[in-house]
Amino acid sequence: MDDADIRDPKLHDVQRGLFVFIPGLPARTRRGAPLWQSLVQRLSDDLAPNWRVKVFEHGLTATSRTDLDQVVRHLAAQLRDWTGELSDDVEPPDAIILAGHSFGGILARAAFLHDASTPERPGRRWTELVRRIVLLGSPNAGYRTDAPGTPLAWRLAYAIATPFYDFTIEKVQAGGYWITDLRLRWLEAYRAKVERPPVVQVLGTSDWLVTHDDIVDQRFMPGAKVYEIPGADHGGLISIDTAPDPQRRYLQLKTAIIGRSDETLDERQTPKPEATAFILHGIRASALGTWVQDLGTAYKAASGSEQTKVISPDTGYFSAMEFALPGTRRRKVHEFLKLYGDAYATRDPDRFVFAGHSNGTYMMARALDRVPAMRFKRIYLAGTVLPRRYDWQRLFDDEQIRKDEGNGWEPGDVRIDRATSDVPVGILCSWLRGLGSVDVGTAGVDGFENVAMANFDQSRRFHGGHGAALENEAQLTAIARYLHDGSGDPGPDDATSSMFSRASRLVGLRIVAWIALLGLGALAALGLVKLGRAKGPRVAAATGTAGAVGLWALLRSI
Q1: Are residues 553 and 487 in the same domain?
Q2: Inter-residue contact 198 to 225 (CB < 8 Å)
Q3: Around Cβ 507, how many Cβ atoms within 10 Å?
Q4: Which end of the chain is more exposed for a tag (fewer CB within 10 A), N or C?
Q5: Is the dihedral of CA 370, 372, 374, 379 positive or negative?
Q6: Is the pLDDT of residue 232 over 50?
Q7: Does the residue 490 lie in any domain?
């Protein structure tokens, strides 16, 4: 085979090998042929007769709405068929190489985890035969919308349609629910004391869509290797026909895919073992002073370690109007998940704690709901906007809130601090529930229902409004101690005024909420009609525009 000889000694003597290639999202040459066609054809010719070459064509596009878990199950089942697990007419291979370009590499990882983590079954699994997983221009954490090479169609799909449709590109966007869960499970699988195949990342030096920042996980994984292909961009990485020197590009890729006899794996960095605290502010952040920074400082002091890390992203001033829009408040979650995934790769997730206020509590809860691999040791919430029947028991049962204090795994800790006159929670969230928003509620005033866990504390109720639990240094110091070691003080237990409670319940009634909304709209329309008849349509239009701008400004400031 001259230059095409298999150089990895572990693969050199393979008599029955299987090479599986998984393309990325559709990309074709000017003649309409897939970018990967020549590469796969040459590999097929060079590796014959000892290796079979198969291509899994998923047919997805950036705006496909197909369930990705279903696609992964299909790929895993296809691999079982190609490896003889499903029928006797296929001779099982001695070794398997999995390779995927871009999105295809994400599917390769997901399919491997799918079958490697399923319960034991008779016979040898195909995952035990995988000798090498090759990711060609494939991000570990998902695609970044701010990357210079992000296609315009992807940006538009994410910016405009994703609040209403669950497109493929949103699921694999950095901070997306699906890709984050895969990322966490992938890291966990390679940190477990189980032998895994080496993972090879191949990047083009001119790839502005996927860069070294997008494969940071490799540095903290055993059995990893990075190859850089000079001058290659994202699509051109696998398009050997369009390379300045096609033969050279082919040999570079083949070496990365097959390996070589003197190949050494990259040195692995050890995740930092010190504690990590995530602190998320919510709506009206600027109205609550510097509590995020002050709590971070207090937590570092309580931990007593210089290496303790506080992650407290500034997600911007979040108004009541923005919070009221489901698509807007849910999109904020992705910013948090990207940071969580990066920390999971570089630090010890068993020492993660969380503190959040207002919309920050919503971001945390929605992330835990949608990303089963996510977990915390201890959680603190103030002014929470979650519904009273939020299912905390499920999170404990699924070990998403867990800790190990030296005696093995046990349930973690949750503390909820409430306020007696919290208008954003007691009025706004109650009204939104009346309008049909089931993912928000009044737990920050009324507390959670149906929680009987001994390590779930919602006994503190502070006199005041939305930020009452975060108003002074003594309170923040107590919260920091709780996050560090679970210690707590009795704290206040003020009663919510009966008038505020009645107002909260009233605005939460569906008929009242909708009558209020429609009534305000009808009054505004009637006023404009009367104004138009008296002063003319131009005056009415100008008044209506000014009123809309004024209302927008008011809601933006609440």
Answers
A1: no
A2: yes
A3: 19
A4: N
A5: positive
A6: yes
A7: yes
Mean pLDDT, the chain, as a whole number? Answer: 86
Of the residues 258, 292, 323, which one is the last residue of a structural domain? 258
In a domain, 312, yes or no: yes
Domain hosting 159: range is: 2-258
Token pair of 195, please? Answer: 């032998």
- Same domain for 147 and 59, yes or no, is yes
Residues 6+ apart with CB under 8 A from 92: 16, 83, 84, 85, 124, 129
pTM of the full structure? 0.88
Q: 408-411: long-range contacts at Cβ-Cβ below 8 A with a sequence spacing of 24 or more?
A: 411/453, 411/455
| Residues 171 and 103 sit within 8 Å (Cβ to Cβ) | no
Q: Which of 80, 23, 15 is nearest to 48 (CA)?
A: 15
DSSP string covering 107-131: HHHHHHHHHHTSPP-SS--GGGGEE
Domain count, the chain: 3
Contacts of 415 by beta carbon, 8 Å cutoff, 6+ apart = 378, 379, 380, 381, 457, 458, 460, 482, 488
Taking the C-alpha atoms of 547, 550, 554 and 556 in order, what is their torsion angle to the nearest 10 degrees? 110
Q: Please state, in angstroms and rounded to a whole number, the distance separating the CA atoms of residues 96 and 362.
A: 44
Among candidate residues 289, 322, 357, 288, the one with its CA nearest the CA of residue 555? 322
8 A C-beta contact, residue 109 and residue 79: no
The answer to whether 108 and 133 are in contact (CB under 8 A) is: yes
Same domain, 283 and 253: no
Contact 215, 228 (CB under 8 A): no
Name the token pair of 100: 């995927």
**239/312 same-domain check:** no
> Strand 17-22 vs strand 95-101: parallel, antiparallel, or unpaired?
parallel
* Cα–Cα–Cα angle for 276, 278, 279, rounded to 5 degrees: 135
The reply to whether 509 falls in a domain is no
Tell me what pLDDT residue 508 has: 85
Query: What is the distance, to the nearest Å, from the Cα of residue 459 to the centroid of all Cα atoms in its chain?
Result: 32
Residues 63 and 173 in one domain: yes
What DSSP string describes 364-399? HHHHHHH-TT--BSEEEEES----TT--HHHHHHTT
Last residue of a domain, one of 258, 293, 324: 258
Same domain, 59 and 166: yes
Best CA proximity match to 436, nearest among 368, 351, 513: 513
Distance of alpha carbon 129 from alpha carbon 125, whole angstroms: 7
- Please give the structure tokens belonging to residue 315: 């997600």
